[in-house]
Design a protein that fits this description.
The protein is of the alpha/beta class. It is about 30% helix and about 15% strand. β4, α5 and β5 form a beta-alpha-beta unit. The protein binds manganese (II) ion (MN) (2 copies).
Length: about 325
């Protein structure tokens, strides 16, 4: 952790009205690069990998917009991330919105550059395609990672409309490329209609633990997370959080909603349950704000990203 007497702090609501000023994530300082940072927020405004409703390109901007309400201290867990870490918003990755393959290349390069600095990236998506280039960059630094993957979908399709790189295929490609430690992967919140009763089998055969949403209904997920921490152990872990893992009642602003999903309370239990894991990166993807006039989906996403920051290694509690 960098030792800086003046750590960047979110701009307080008594210094500037919350609805005013530039909307960086949590009203943190904007930085050009990850140099000197322990963790950073950055956006990947890509949605040309989506199969149904588009609009996740607006996710990063709207998550930042709703994040203006966030205060720096976690009242529930006592985490004080800005006491411990240097954190800033380093802006967006300049994807090529006319070319998915080129965008994937651009994202991998951006994360490879970012990871030269010992900085943990917390990504505002963007559709789930972005997990693949991010995992490619993370692999170069950390080797195969475990993954806590929250999603209605396994995202392990072999292809969509014949295309190998889409928002429904990143974890299939990641396994094939050796980017993951498959026995250290858990997928939570799976549900919805399928093409075949065995749609989830490929993921199971790789050694993933699959937790369907109906196994989560009506219960706390804290006991599950005790098991997940045991499963994932001490190696590096990536958190990939598709907002459609939650029920559309909580997160309707997304492209492929499925009914019967997790609650926002269960989302908090999952992320807080990652405390103690060696989390080396995280994303929050598939927020498509245009389908949620209330702003709730982006507000929820902003809060979940803050919770991810709060469980990073080295964050002290007050
Ligand atoms: Mn997904
Ligand atoms: Mn999904």
């Amino acid at each position: 952790m960098s030792d800086s007497p003046e750590r960047p702090q979110p701009l307080g609501g008594n210094q500037m009205p919350r609805f005013a000023g530039p909307a960086t994530m949590m009203r943190l300082p904007a930085r050009e690069s990850a140099a000197g940072l322990d963790a950073c927020f950055l956006g990947v405004p890509l949605d040309i990998g989506t199969s149904n409703r588009p609009g996740a390109r607006y996710g990063p901007r709207e998550i930042r917009n709703e994040s203006v309400l966030l205060r720096p201290y976690n009242m529930a867990t006592r985490s004080a991330p800005f006491d411990s870490l240097n954190v800033a918003d380093i802006g967006d990755v300049p994807i090529n919105t006319f070319n998915l393959a080129d965008s994937v290349r651009i994202i991998e390069e951006a994360y490879t550059d970012l990871l030269i600095h010992d900085c943990v990236p917390l990504t505002l998506g963007g559709d789930h395609t972005i997990a693949l280039p991010i995992l490619r960059a993370i692999y170069q630094k950390h080797g195969p990672v475990g993954v806590v993957h929250v999603d209605a979908h396994t995202d392990t399709s072999d292809a969509m409309f014949g295309e190998p790189v889409t928002h429904g295929t990143p974890f299939r490609r990641a396994v094939e490329e050796g980017l993951l430690a498959p026995e250290r992967v858990v997928q939570i919140g799976l549900r919805g209609t399928g093409y075949d009763p065995n749609d989830f089998e490929w993921a199971r055969e790789q050694g993933f633990r699959l937790v369907p949403a109906d196994e989560c209904w009506h219960r706390s997920l804290s006991p599950l997370m005790d098991e997940v921490r045991e499963q994932l152990g001490s190696g590096p872990v990536y958190i990939s959080f598709d907002i459609d893992g939650l029920d559309p009642a909580y997160a309707g602003g997304t492209g492929t909603p499925e009914i019967g999903g997790l609650t926002s309370i269960q989302a908090l239990e999952i992320i807080r349950g990652c405390q103690g894991l060696d989390v080396v990166g995280a994303d929050l993807v598939e927020v498509a704000p245009v389908y949620d006039a209330s702003g709730n989906t982006a507000l929820l996403a902003a809060n979940l990203l803050f919770e991810m920051l709060c469980i990073l290694p080295g964050v002290k509690k007050r």
